[in-house]
Amino acid sequence: MADLLTNEQFDKFRKTIYDESGITFSATNRSILDSRLKERLRDKKLDSVDEYYKLVISNREEMKVMLDSVTTNLTRFFRNQPHFDALINYVIPHILEDKKKTGSHTVKIWSAGCSTGEEPYTLSMILKDILPPGYDFQIIASDLSLKSLMVGKQGFYPTARVDGIPPKYLSRFFTKTDTGYQANKELMSPIRFDYHNLKNDNGIRNMDIVFCRNVLIYFDEPAQFRVINHFWNALGPHGYLYIGHSESLFGMNTKFKFLRTQWTTLYEKNSE
């Protein structure tokens, strides 16, 4: 089958997607864009790529749907366990020390690019388990994909999707059904799912931790730099940034400090 997009059409869609989201499509992942746009043309019962392009640039809702359709949402519970080991053994103890100095009793986390919710629910399980009495937490879970956010908000996962959850957490925080597992209200209540395009500053401030793993790889360097600056602004005076194990801020002129722990590497903001 011939490519759906001509070179000119590919360039138009690629530029629009980049301008709207910072997500970069190149010749190597052109086939992904091609197949996702085919699906949208079928759904909208359109025959012409140019006709669909006119719809996208004139209709904000279709723009959101298109951006949703071209993003890849791969995730799982407790993905990259060393990240959570560092959270439990290093990051949270240091944050609690800071909280004692300020008198605050709330740990605030932003799960950016949360996909279908496995990461924020993993964080919620851990913090429910390890935070001492008198402390609570809030998690903002954001994504560009409205479809993924709806899955996260519902908190229901087929049996095959919960394989990574330790049995003690699964029995405590989920209710088994005939077709899968439903997250309990206790687990869901600290999490707020929210649509957000990482290209923009969403006004979040005074976070203790930002998780944004395996998202930066979809951006080119200028877009990565803008996103990292948004994270710097979102964190409080002393906060921590997690990115994917295959991602790095090396060579990028940011104010974050590289932090090597016994379990994994991450980044630290210390502007005091």
Tell me the distance between the termini.
59 Å
Strand order, sheet with most strands: 6-2-1-7-8-10-9
Rg to the nearest angstrom? 20 Å
Let me know the number of strands: 10
Series of H and E elements: HHHHHEHEHEHEEHEEHEEE
Strand content: 15-25%
* Mean model confidence by pLDDT: 92
> Count of DSSP helices?
10
- Structural class by sheet pairing and helices: alpha/beta
Large-scale geometry = globular
Unreliable parts:
none
Proportion of helical residues? 40-55%
The main sheet comes to: 7 strands, mixed
Describe this structure in words.
- It contains ten helices and ten strands.
- The chain has 272 residues and is an alpha/beta fold.
- The chain has a seven-stranded mixed β-sheet. It has a three-stranded antiparallel β-sheet with strand order 3-5-4.
- The radius of gyration is 20 Å and the shape is globular.
- The longest helix has 22 residues, at 81-102.
- Helix 1 packs parallel to helix 3 and helix 3 (49-58) packs across helix 4.
- The model has no long low-confidence stretch (mean pLDDT 92).
